[in-house]
């Protein structure tokens, strides 16, 4: 028969850590499934469409099919930091969005017109786009500086003011360069999330092993020997 006398403080910390590790593993498994669905949607986007089709008849999925011009741009441009093969700036301009319904109020779409290499200063003109929801700012994303036209995250209201339009007229999607699968999908494919999940689950198993081994080494987890009274009773029988 096993006898187990757990160390109270160690047990509390071990259980909390175990729950956290299992939750992290489960979160990575969810990310893996989510990423697989996004990649499947991206690969099934279909043929090129117009801006009007992409905006007025959005398809299921995170991004639209490839979009081609013409692109009637207007006003100033914004410089939004982006990381591709190299660090640089996306040049964003305003386009009068196609009207989906007769008599609808004017709306505008932010469109990437060029990518400027941060080091060399060379610009690459964009000719094909995809319409998608802009990414949200991360925990460590620097703050935007409208005064110097330096943007590090998508802030629709402030960007609209900087471009001189009513924030309510700016669409909640934008058109960015369709230069291959998004880095968010290609740099961390589902297989990586599976590896992360297995790592967290492996750490959880290791924690359980160390916890039990420590209790065995201190004699708090062991097989109990039969009592002497029990031995006498067996002999009497």
Characterization of the model:
There is one protein chain. With 237 residues, this protein is an alpha+beta fold. The chain folds into two domains: 1-67 and 183-226; 70-177, no CATH class. Helices cover 38% and strands 23% of the residues. It is built from six helices and nine strands; from the N terminus they run βααββββββαβααβα. The chain has helices spanning 8-43, 51-56, 156-163, 183-186, 190-217, 228-236, and strands at residues 2-4, 73-83, 87-96, 108-117, 123-125, 129-132, 150-151, 170-177, 221-223. Strands 2, 3, 4, 5, 6, 7 and 8 form a seven-stranded mixed beta sheet that branches. A two-stranded antiparallel sheet has the order 1-9. The model is unreliable at 233-237 (pLDDT under 50).
């Amino acid at each position: 028969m096993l006898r187990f006398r757990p160390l109270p403080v160690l047990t509390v910390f071990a259980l909390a850590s175990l729950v956290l590790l299992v939750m992290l593993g489960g979160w990575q498994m969810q990310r893996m499934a989510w990423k697989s669905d996004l990649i499947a949607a991206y690969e099934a986007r279909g043929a090129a469409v117009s801006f009007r089709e992409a905006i007025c008849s959005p398809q299921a999925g995170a991004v639209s099919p490839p979009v081609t011009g013409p692109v009637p741009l207007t006003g100033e441009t914004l410089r939004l930091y982006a990381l591709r093969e190299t660090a640089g700036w996306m040049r964003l301009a305003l386009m009068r969005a196609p009207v989906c319904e007769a008599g609808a109020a004017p709306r505008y779409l932010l469109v990437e017109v060029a990518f400027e290499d941060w080091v060399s200063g060379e610009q690459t003109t964009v000719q094909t786009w995809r319409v998608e929801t802009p990414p949200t700012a991360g925990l460590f994303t620097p703050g935007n500086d409208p005064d110097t036209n330096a943007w590090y995250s998508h802030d629709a209201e402030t960007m609209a003011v900087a471009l001189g339009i009513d924030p309510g007229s700016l669409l909640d999607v934008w058109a960015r360069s369709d230069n291959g699968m998004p880095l968010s999908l290609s740099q961390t494919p589902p297989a990586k999330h599976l590896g992360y999940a297995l790592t967290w689950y492996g750490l959880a198993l290791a924690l359980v092993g160390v916890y039990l081994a420590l209790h065995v080494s201190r004699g708090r987890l062991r097989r109990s020997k039969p009592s002497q009274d029990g031995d006498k009773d067996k002999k009497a029988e």
